[in-house]
């Protein structure tokens, strides 16, 4: 079912400082920051040869990252995103196997405009998993 | 400096259950378990088209994962491993920039037999980073 690792998302308290760290200290190629008010985050992508690191800073009062950063004030790895060929079929198959899907359970447009859904961390080794339509 | 994401490591309390979850629930290709007594872990690799997920279970009384799993009993993402072309040069450059390297500060053979070192999570957005000689 799962294909490529699309990205690893790291929540950070200060996006400019985090971007500088990856660009200057680790010598990586980084994107411009992109505010995504509908998701409550601003994103910067670190482009690696085989995948991406998504740096996420809270945006607005109701950011889904606020609680995570309260518990992890230095930042931390927030989720892994795997690509799937058919997200509707994946969702159906996972639910039938007893996996809890967060929110409505229906795929919705994610930060890249493609349909995504999130699996409950308690069902996946303490890791929040995003599935994205490839 | 950094190249490919070599792997994402996930610490798990029960390697057989974690392997079954990735193989049966997510339909991924998984390796046989490999005990690595010198590192205090048993590893299973989940092979994705562009990178690997390394599932890690504690092995022996002094496993470096014991405390992590006490704090994260369901498991959790333990570290990210980036490849570098020249680990000695990377180490020197990072130390000169004020990055703390864990342990002796010298690269030592990692789980794949190649030289590795670990960077202090406090210096990297709350994430433990392994650098591995490509």
Low-confidence stretches of chain A: none
Series of H and E elements of chain A: EHEEEEHEHEEE
- Main sheet record of chain A: 9 strands, mixed
Give the C-level CATH assignment of chain A.
Alpha Beta
Tell me the name of the CATH homologous superfamily of chain A: 2,3-Dihydroxybiphenyl 1,2-Dioxygenase, domain 1
> Which pair of chains forms the biggest interface, and how many residues does each contribute?
A-B, 37 and 37 residues
DSSP strand (E) fraction of chain A?
35-45%
Oligomer: homodimer
CATH architecture classification name of chain A: Roll
Q: What's the end-to-end separation of chain A, in Å? A: 11 Å
In short:
Chain A is built from 3 helices and 9 strands. Chain A has 134 residues and is α+β, with helices and mostly antiparallel strands.
Describe the overall structure:
In chain A, a hairpin with a 4-residue loop joins strand 3 and strand 4. The first copy, chain A, has 134 residues and is an alpha+beta fold. Chain A is globular, with a radius of gyration of 15 Å. Chain A has one domain: 2,3-Dihydroxybiphenyl 1,2-Dioxygenase, domain 1. Chain A has helices at residues 15-25, 66-71, 87-96, and strands spanning 2-11, 29-30, 34-36, 41-47, 52-58, 76-84, 108-109, 115-119, 129-133. The relative contact order of chain A is 0.20. In chain A, strands 1, 2, 3, 4, 5, 6, 7, 8 and 9 form a 9-stranded mixed sheet that branches. The longest helix of chain A has 11 residues, at 15-25. Chain A is 20% helix and 37% strand. Chain A binds chain B through residues 1-5, 8, 10, 12, 18, 21, 25-28, 48-51, 53, 55, 72-77, 80, 82, 94, 97, 99, 121-122, 124-127, and chain B through 1-5, 8, 10, 12, 18, 21, 25-28, 48-51, 53, 55, 72-77, 80, 82, 94, 97, 99, 121-122, 124-127.
């Amino acid at each position: 079912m799962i294909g490529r690792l699309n990205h690893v998302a790291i929540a950070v308290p200060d996006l400019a400082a985090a971007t500088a760290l990856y660009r200057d200290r680790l010598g990586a190629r980084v994107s411009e920051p992109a505010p995504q008010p509908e998701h409550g985050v601003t994103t910067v992508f670190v482009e690696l040869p085989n995948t991406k690191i998504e740096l996420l800073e809270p945006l607005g009062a109701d950011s889904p990252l606020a609680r995570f950063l309260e518990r992890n004030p230095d930042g931390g790895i927030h989720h892994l995103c795997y690509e799937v060929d058919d997200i509707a079929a994946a969702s159906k198959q996972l639910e039938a196997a007893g996996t809890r899907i967060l929110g409505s359970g229906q795929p919705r447009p994610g930060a890249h405009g493609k349909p995504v859904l999130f699996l409950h961390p308690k069902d996946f080794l303490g890791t929040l998993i995003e599935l994205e339509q490839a």
